[in-house]
Please model this.
Amino acid sequence: MKEQFILGWEEWLALPDLGLPAMKAKIDTGARTSALAASAIEEIGTSDQPRVRFVVRPIPGRDDVEITCVADVVDRRDVTSSNGEAERRYVIRTVARMGEREWPIDVTLASREQMAYRMLLGRQAVRADMIVDPATSFRQPQLSYRSYGSAARSEPVSRPLSIGLLSRRPENPSNRRLVRQAELRGHAMPVIDRRRVSLYIASREPAILINGEPLEHLDAVIFRAGKSPSHFTLAIIRQLEHFGTLSLNPVDAMMKAGDALVLRQTLAAAGIDVPEIAVNPRDLARVKSGSEHTLADSLGALGSGRRLRFAIVGNRALVGLEQAPTTALDGDNQWHAITGSGTEVEAARRLAEQAARVIGLGFVAVDVLLSRTGPLVVDVTANVSLSMIERLTGVSLAEAVIVHIEQAVAAHDRRKAQARDQQ
Model:
């Protein structure tokens, strides 16, 4: 027989999709819809896909703990509060979690923060197999406000930015993380499908068209696609750069990283150790097809050393992964977070950061092999599996990328202002 799911009149719950790991909620079966106390409520997104950004102070009496949230708007309702005041509220849909159980709920955003409980769970959110026992409380696992100890947010940039995301897969988990972090920090991130782009190349008034309409100005652009982008994709980014848009990974850098032969020549010329390889005309096609096949023989001669991968944002390695010793594992399962450090790992980290600077990529993954002769750079790619790395390490790369863009655009603005002043 299935164990009963019993709720007391108050319970701890989490709203993980909103970044709220612990909240005390009053179970209010007298209310039809659940309510969440919010402030600074602002509609964002488009008319086709409305979204709302808001601030939650999850700990009563602690105004210093603020979490900025973003959610899809599913409705707008006129709600009359217990004191008789009518209020138009946004309705969002999110996931509630109690213990091991998760289920979707609709929540209205209430702008009154004097609510004793920041969350009210209405009867619509109480499922048919749940039993409410109003004589008890906290029947489900308890959480702690201590989970907000590391929830500090850096301040958003002084002006909102328009950051383009060039990708054919807007629903890709990595892309969704980038969009969410951009919106949390007050920026717009339109997703641009290159298949809908046309370029108008001219000496006077060149343009980029989306479905025939001119693309609005972008402060910055992030390119998300395969290891070797097409010539047309590079042309789009090049045209944006001509318009003054800051590219997280500039065209020239991506061209170096996308060609295995040019990549290794560039790194070697800068004094960065790479696996030695001899190339003749017969090997050229194989060399350009990808580093894994190109380096198979040379890597085999170096022995089975540890292979590390560093995710680098703005020339700084934020996290590191290590490849599992067996090659039988496929995909993301073959990697795990680096545990501990040491002289070898730190040397590899510095080498990875140096390689990123030499190539000129702002967001890049660099693979380093700890060979018998020392660390060697074996691969550099702008196609970073952001969602996989975040899942394995717990580090928010998406937020680091947006913060880096804010800083880079601010520096870009200062340089433009200085240039105008000197004219």
In short: Residues 151-157, 290-301 have pLDDT under 50 and may be disordered. Residues 244 and 405 are 14 Å apart (CA to CA). The radius of gyration is 26 Å. The longest strand covers residues 67-80.
